[in-house]
Amino acid sequence: MKLHASGEDYLETILVLQKKLGMVRSVDVARHLEVTKPSVCHAVATLRDGGFLTMDSDYFLHLTDAGREVAERIYEKHRFFTDRLIEVSVDPETAERDACRMEHVISQESFEHLRDAYKTKKE
Asked: What confidence tens digit (pLDDT) does each residue in 75-108 have?
């Protein structure tokens, strides 16, 4: 299943909230993304059908291996771009917003080359 940017955002948010809260429900995702609960329910159903997450009997969301892989990849891009933008004096709020856009449009190959070049230059 091909994920759209919004699906990637939901997976990334679940990952971030799991790291922060431990257990995550749809309402936590709705609050974090500032979207309605029905929007989250629709996204959760789509992501569940795609094999990216599960929901247990207590309505907690859990990333599958595939979902975690996508979420980690997107989150790595997000952190990388946010940090680089802040390093060059972009306002942190703006850096977060711009990084969120950038993480979805750059190919994995280009990102890895950019990240590796940055690490090499830094050393």
From this structure: 999 999 999 999 999 999 999 999 999 999 999 9
Do 41 and 26 meet the contact criterion of CB atoms below 8 Å apart?
yes
The amino acid at residue 63 is L
CA–CA gap between residue 64 and residue 67 (Å, rounded) = 5
Cβ(33)–Cβ(1) under 8 Å? Answer: no
Top CATH class, 73-122: mainly alpha
Give, in order, the Cα–Cα distances in Å from 11 to each of 1, 29, 69: 14, 10, 10
pTM listed for this prediction: 0.90
Residue type, 114: L
For residue 107, give the 3-state DSSP assignment.
coil
Query: 5-69, which class in CATH?
Result: mainly alpha
Range list for CATH 1.10.10.10 in the chain: 5-69
Where residue 121 falls among pLDDT bands split at 50, 70, 90? Answer: confident
3-class DSSP assignment, residue 101: helix
3-state secondary structure of 55: strand
32, two tokens? 């974090």
